[in-house]
Amino acid sequence: MSELVMLRPWWLAALAPLIALALWQWWRGPAAGGWERVMPPTMLAAMRALGHLGGGASHPGLAPLAAAGLISFGLGGPAVPRIDAPLLAGSGAILIAIDMSPSVAESPALADAQAAAADILAAANGRPVGLVLYSGEAYDIAAPTTDPATLESQIAVLGRDTMPEAGSRPAAALALARQMLRASRNADLVLISDGGGVDDATRAEAERLAGDGIRLSVLSLTGAVGGGIDTAALEGLGSAAAPARAPDPVLRYLSRAGALERDPALTALEFRDLGPFVAALSALPLISLFRRRA
Question: What are the C-alpha distances in Å from 263 to residues 14, 124, 190, 238?
Fold first, then answer.
């Protein structure tokens, strides 16, 4: 609740001329009906002390400026996030493509892939999620669904005997994902892989995904059988990349990419606008202008 944001920050531009005018008023000093232009400062101060020039009144012109400043700041929309704001889910589907080649399925990297897929399910925030598995070929395991429990059980039972053949063809997984997501607006594909099999065909499929408006993210696996991963090749495929053991950057990317487009009507649901209360404070300096003088 301590994070202050400005909902309409362009109104703050009005503060600059107000501050400049206030400084000029302060530098000029309090008005004395024109006598300040012809009387020496010592005589002017003595006349004020005697009560002949407003009884030592200070800077009455600053009150309207202070009121205008408060109004401008209030129109800027100072606000704090609401703790009771509803969670708004995006509409685009998320498809998870998991590398089940022997280098992953027969190594500790499989557990990392399962954990990363579970993290994606938890971060989907109501978006439909589907599952693709691939090795030498790609298979549509589950179409995008809003019931994560269905995928949780399927991901949990993955093992070395899940796929019927060996090999690693991520290009086949990307091609299948493009067919599954073609009709989905604002869609994301998350590739969980050790980097095996990334070739020109894979890069060509990644370009086709981008051409269809499907965002590709990559989670890289370590500890696979047969050596290290080709991190550079994996990172070059997607818009976001991270290790599967630390998927937070990709999860944040999915959260931003899947959020609803900003609608001003929804702002009241996310923030508590303090602008009206700040603008109401402008009455305090204005009230001082109506006080009775002797």
Answer: 25, 21, 27, 28
How does pLDDT run along the chain (294 residues), one tens digit per residue?
A: 457 888 888 888 988 988 888 888 777 665 555 666 667 778 777 777 776 665 444 555 678 888 888 899 989 889 888 776 655 555 688 999 999 998 888 888 899 999 999 999 988 877 899 999 999 899 999 999 888 888 998 999 998 888 888 888 999 999 999 999 988 878 899 999 988 888 899 999 999 999 998 999 999 888 766 555 666 777 778 888 888 899 998 888 887 655 444 455 656 677 888 889 998 998 888 887 776 554
Tell me which long-range contacts 246-251 makes (C-beta under 8 A, separation of at least 24): 247/116, 247/119, 247/120, 247/219, 250/190, 250/217, 250/218, 250/219, 251/119, 251/120, 251/123
Amino acid at 171: A
Dig out the tokens for 188 from the structure: 């994301």
Spell out the domains of the chain, with CATH numbers in brackets.
Answer: 5-84+264-290 (no CATH), 94-257 (3.40.50.410)
Element (H, E) at 218: strand 215-220
The structure's pTM equals: 0.59
Paired tokens of 126:
């109501």
- Report d(CA 181, CA 211) in Å as an integer: 12
Residues 17 and 141: their CA atoms lie apart, in Å, by 63
Residue written as tokens 């129109």? Answer: 75
Element (H, E) at 119: helix 109-123
Cα dihedral: 239, 141, 231, 203 (round 10): -60
- Give the containing element (helix H, strand E) for 108: none
